[in-house]
Design a protein that fits this description.
Radius of gyration: 19 Å
Order of helices and strands: HHEEHEEEEEHHEE
Distance between the termini: 60 Å
Low-confidence stretches: 190-208
Helix content: 25-40%
Strand content: 15-25%
Shape: elongated
Mean pLDDT: 83
Structural class: alpha+beta
Number of helices: 5
Length: 208
């Protein structure tokens, strides 16, 4: 006997609705985080090189954007100027080129953009959201925040489970799993066969 469960048309519709709603919730959270990050980048621009004021802008952003774990403010040469929270502060002065965020990154994606998922210096597997910083219209660096998937995806996942009864896992276009209730499944894994899933990508248009 087959152990497979037949998916009815009603089940398929419910799955589609749950996937669409989950994607909408995640995009809404990303948009909110992006708006907060843009405000912080503008605060840093107004600080005119004042590192203390830039640090305050990062800590204010952490308070306002719960989906961000940690933040870095780097100059146009990709050297960290200041970072937050406290466990990240010793990153100041380090070269950040490993993360691939530079002027070309923002030319291609706009004032704000997302990196691919990667293992960060603090050992966290996450994507970075980055907002460019300008001085008199000239690119002067960026702020980047590591996204907390337990908030960004975990909260919508709980809502979907409550409403529809479905668990949720998320993969990148590359096939790498970036969210699962079983954290051991997240990140680079040995090759294996997996079902095909329809996905929705997120791309925020430049705001100026």
């Amino acid at each position: 006997q087959s152990s497979c469960t037949k998916i009815t048309a009603r089940d398929s519709t419910a799955l589609e609705n749950a996937a669409d709603e989950a994607a909408a919730l995640i995009v809404e959270s990303l948009d909110e985080t992006a708006e907060e990050m843009l405000e912080a980048s503008e605060d840093i621009e107004e600080a005119n090189g004042n590192v203390k004021a830039a640090s305050k802008a990062l800590y204010d952003l952490l308070d306002d954007a719960p989906s961000i774990i940690s933040l870095v403010y780097a100059d146009a040469d990709e050297i960290c100027i200041t970072a937050a929270p406290q466990f990240m502060e010793d990153v100041a002065g380090r070269d950040m080129t490993i993360y691939g965020i530079d002027e070309d990154f923002h030319k291609n994606l706009g004032r704000i953009g997302l990196t691919k998922y990667q293992t960060l210096e603090e050992g966290v597997f996450a994507a970075l959201m980055s907002a460019a910083v300008y001085e008199n219209g000239i690119y002067a660096g960026y702020i980047s925040g590591a996204l907390d998937d337990s908030v960004l995806i975990g909260i919508p996942a709980k809502e979907i489970r409550t409403k529809y009864g479905y668990g949720m896992w998320v993969v990148e276009p590359s096939g790498m799993q970036i969210y699962d209730t079983d954290s051991d499944e997240v990140g680079p894994q040995p090759p294996r066969r997996a079902p095909r899933w329809r996905s929705r990508s997120y791309r925020r248009q430049p705001s100026g």
